[in-house]
Amino acid sequence: MKFATCIWLLRYAVKTNSYELVILDVPNGLSSTVCDVVVTLSTENVTLSAAYTYDSSLGGSIASVSPSRGGTAGGTTLTITGTNLDNPAGVNVTIDGVACVISSNDGSTIECRTDAHQGSIEADVKVKLGSDGFAVVPENVEATFFYVDVWSSVYTWGGGPLPEEGDLVEIPQGQTLLLDMDTPVLKVLLIRGKLVFDEKDVELQAENILIVDGGTLQVGTEDEPFQHKGIITMHGHLRSLEMPIYGAKTLGVRNGTLDLHGKPKEPWTVLAQTANAGATEIVLERPVHWEVGDRIAIASTGHRHSQIENEEREIAAISADGFTLTLTEALDYKHLGVTADLGGGHTLEMRAEVGLLTHNVVFRGSDHHQWKDVIEACPAGFDTGYCFLLFRYFTE
């Protein structure tokens, strides 16, 4: 047997002329553990040795809880699996003090329906087994439920239709909304509460987004960067009506938070050795954590009119050490990766920059068809000198 001192949460106390009744919530404990009960009042304490025993045979154990989230309006069917989840004195399930109404229980599987909860919260799912206490949750089991409203649920919008193109949408203070689907092009998205991108490929589209009054727009966090493709696309054109102060096709933040955290990747490096025209592999000076399918830019190392030698390519494979990239297409031009000796102990690094163009969190503007023309590149490049004669920078 193991002996320990139990620390319990005081729920309430009742005092009469002859005795005082103290009601406690007992926390999870180890199997076959005998505890001392210690009552402390100010600087005084009294110990009752070996007064409480944790007995694993009296209670059940939770193995899984599914799904792990649901709307604050309730109505989510929760399935709880485990062992010994029945009790002659009755069983009840609660989440942050809110009942989950049981519809079936065969001792190994409980199905219940969540009730409404005020506000968003992630809380433990508690299964009370009569007077025998709560079912145990092993350390490797996540028995939690996230009360959160999702964009795709009609119940988030009062049972009505989901937001449509051209709508003005407001997320009020105190509400956390999970964006779990692509949106149409909204006229205005006003965020006073919190809008969080679900961990999946998703795109938010709007003409104007305003984050005010302590609101938050979050795509990943610093501790847990976003792992999928998260896109925010702003829509508008030269003739779009402007909002006072903010303008058109804008994302404005006033007393709010814009939190964007994509996968951490090296933004650029340089060539470790020269890559010749026709090469399908390039060797980098520093290792990178880029991915197959990412697009990169390889800068020109030619003369001052060699802009045409800047090249964009897609990564087909990456070596295990992160130094060598295999490209889906061969290079059209030579890109230097050398150190020139200038004499006198002086050297000059002449190496093409290699930059990453692909990112999994993207903030971008839309292309409007009325303002998009294709301008063909000059076959021989262009002169990078002055575009106008000296002192002739405009015509009347």
From TrEMBL:
Q: Which residues form the G8 domain?
A: 155-273
Q: Which PROSITE patterns match?
A: G8
The UniProt entry, under CDD domains, shows: IPT_PCSR
* Gene3D superfamilies (UniProt xref): Immunoglobulins (2.60.40.10)
Q: Which UniProt keywords apply?
A: Signal
Q: Which domain of life is it from?
A: Eukaryota
Per the UniProt record, one Pfam family is: TIG
Q: Does the keyword Hydrolase apply?
A: no
InterPro entries xrefs: Fibrocystin (IPR052387), G8_domain (IPR019316), Ig-like_fold (IPR013783), Ig_E-set (IPR014756), IPT_dom (IPR002909)
Protein known as = PKHD1L1
